[in-house]
């Protein structure tokens, strides 16, 4: 493993390491107006949600690494204290990338990238019609993190109004993560498409998991299971009872067959198959039947 002191490498090199190792990063597609009312549109991947009450988004238009200049978006929010943050999905990612071209001051990126200007309701900057979710925001504060190339400027935005396309909602009125099809930034030219790699991890909020420390040693030392498997096994509130395990073994011909082989590797492999299907309690029954 290499160890790096940020002060001992060039800013461009550090920039590349950071952007390639911290991600995927959501994209703030920021719409602003200059002091003369000219629209500006630009994406920023230093962005996230930081509070729900009040609803706060923060994005950072950093000073350019190569020449230490600042971006039009930063100048605009300093003047007007308003911004619309639009989310970016797969259908608009190429146009969004095009809008990041450093056009001259006053050039309308809506027109250059082929997006549709949609009037906002409580702020002056336009919304991007093609974006599935749009946030009209006031700028509460701008925090400069430095005066050198690569230094960030935290634009702290309070959401005044949120607009959601009905097309991305499920039958319960919630945002469907497949339908919204968000994209995010990685290092270099790389992006990530969330809908192609979705998986669920049950949050340990309503139950008190037994923890990995309470998993029997013969399971923790198995070469079949990885850290994710142990995390799932440790996130159950209680283990199956001996009676439940006995009934399971009695009713499962497949388990009986594996147990009769007295092959620990096969038993653990069967348990892992259930873990991969997120059927954790059945995986536990398989594992505990090994000691019957």
UniProtKB/TrEMBL annotation:
Family annotation (Gene3D superfamilies): Electron Transport, Fmn-binding Protein, Chain A (2.30.110.10)
Domain Flavin reductase like: 20-176
Keyword set, alphabetical order: Flavoprotein, FMN
Recorded superkingdom: Bacteria
InterPro entries: Flavin_Rdtase-like_dom, Split_barrel_FMN-bd
Cofactor dependence: FMN
TM spans (from-to): none
Family membership noted in the UniProt record: Belongs to the flavoredoxin family.
Entry protein name: Flavin reductase family protein
Organism: Flavobacterium ichthyis
């Amino acid at each position: 493993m290499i160890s790096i002191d940020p002060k001992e490498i060039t800013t461009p090199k550090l920039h590349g390491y950071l952007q390639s190792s911290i991600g995927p990063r959501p994209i703030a597609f920021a719409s602003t107006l200059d002091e003369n009312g000219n629209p500006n549109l630009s994406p920023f991947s230093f962005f996230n949600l930081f509070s729900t009450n009040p609803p706060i988004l923060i994005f950072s238009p950093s000073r350019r690494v190569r020449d230490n200049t600042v971006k039009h978006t930063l100048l605009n929010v300093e003047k007007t204290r308003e911004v619309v943050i639009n989310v970016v999905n797969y259908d608009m990612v190429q146009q969004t990338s095009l809008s990041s071209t450093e056009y001259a001051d006053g050039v309308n990126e809506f027109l250059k990238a082929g997006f549709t200007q949609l009037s906002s309701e409580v702020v002056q900057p336009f919304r991007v019609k093609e974006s599935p979710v749009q946030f009209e925001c006031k700028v509460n504060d701008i925090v400069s993190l430095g005066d050198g190339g690569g230094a960030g400027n935290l634009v702290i935005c309070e959401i005044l109004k949120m607009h959601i396309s009905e097309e991305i909602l499920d039958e319960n009125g919630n945002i469907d993560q497949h339908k919204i099809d968000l994209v995010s930034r990685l290092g270099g030219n790389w992006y990530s498409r969330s809908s192609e790699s979705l998986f669920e991890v049950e949050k340990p909020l309503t139950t008190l998991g037994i923890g990995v420390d309470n998993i029997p040693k013969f399971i923790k030392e198995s070469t079949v299971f990885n850290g994710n498997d142990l995390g799932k096994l440790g996130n159950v509130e209680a283990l199956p009872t001996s009676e439940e395990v006995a009934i399971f073994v009695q009713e499962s011909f497949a388990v009986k067959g594996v147990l009769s082989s007295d092959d620990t590797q096969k038993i653990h492999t069967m348990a892992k198959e259930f873990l991969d299907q997120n059927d954790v309690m059945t995986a536990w029954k398989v594992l505990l039947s090994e000691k019957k």
